[in-house]
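Sequence in, structure out. Go.
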Amino acid sequence: MTATISVELFQRAKKLIPGGVNSPVRAFNSVKSSPIYIQSGKGAFMYDVDGREYLDFCYSWGPLILGHAHPAVIEAVNIAVAEGLSFGACNPREVEMAELLNRQIPYLEMVRMVNSGTEAVMTALRLARGATGRRGIIKFDGCYHGHSDCMLVSAGSGLLTGGISSSAGVSDSTASEVIVAPYNNIKALEEIFSICGKDIAAVIVEPIAGNMGLVPPVHGFLEGLRELTEKHGSLLIFDEVITGFRTCPGTFGQVCGVTPDLTCLGKIIGGGMPIGAVGGKTDIMSQLAPLGPVYQAGTLSGNPVALAAGLTTLDLLIEENPYPQLKKMTETIASELNSFAQASGLNIHCNHHTGMFTLFFTGKTHLHNLDDVKTCDTAAFARFHRSMLEQGIYLPPSQFELSFVSTANSDRDIERYLDAAKKSLAEVAI
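Output:
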């Protein structure tokens, strides 16, 4: 597929921007293709610089739960922009957002606004260390929590060895403070805590893993994390940057009945604008400056334009409650694809949860951790992605990312996706 203007823009970009992109996955390297440059979006569709239309199932990697350019969100942003882009001072929308989050998620007793999910996680980890006086962090292999140094660590050679850096520029000392455990394996956590529990400041987890594809928690896993952290005086941090307001008008912690000490939010709460938040119990959050000794600051934190987009988005989600319809659409996609795979003898399996799904190119039908996900045929996914793109279906350009549906999607959109997917799967050697 030739995209003349996109190709030209990419060539220009590569001369001045590392890899030609401002976020690595946008380079389309994993699908052996070249990036598409998007000019605009409306509802369920995006339009590239060459005038091609795409039915979108990426939605800016999750924030656009209402679809592209929702009229109410655009109106709210326009009003906020007319009042001023930024003040570097307090503004009323900060208070409104904190009140809304506390109202919808009562265990967020206090909230600090930041500018990204990465920054929310960075703040939560510093806060956990400051509150506990400990240094150790436990994370899970396959979970992604942004690109701060201590979160760019992958599993070492054994459970009780420090992690190893998965990025150049991360010091050995930073990596040594992070233990990486297998997701959904509570016994591994019990072993770690039995030996070094007194040194662990926090356990951070995606309650539904979304950065190795969609991998749900097995029964008892999150409950076990809560029990272990409470027993050993460590904090439990839920990274709900993806899942916050995705599965309900609140958090997945509320859905599963497990209350963390700190919660990180982003994406949907900004309605498509850059945003992040960390919230939790008052005694912990009060450790943040200016009340306490844990420092955090940001020139654009609580930006009024981002908050206008986010408040409008959340108000609409609360008022309209689209979650049953989002659930129905993702269930239809997963059911149809899994039935098609079984009938056709294809090595694929679709995992899903409300408003999000992943089609894994593997014969495994139960995927619980990164080792399971690593069995995927990424070359087959790349062929599938290119075929779908040719049919005007835009998917995240990686086997290990989530696809999303939005309130802008119709039943006809879901049918179009399924028809295209079945055609592409029939063409792709699996």
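Check: The chain has two domains: 4-65+322-427, 71-319. The longest strand covers residues 136-141.
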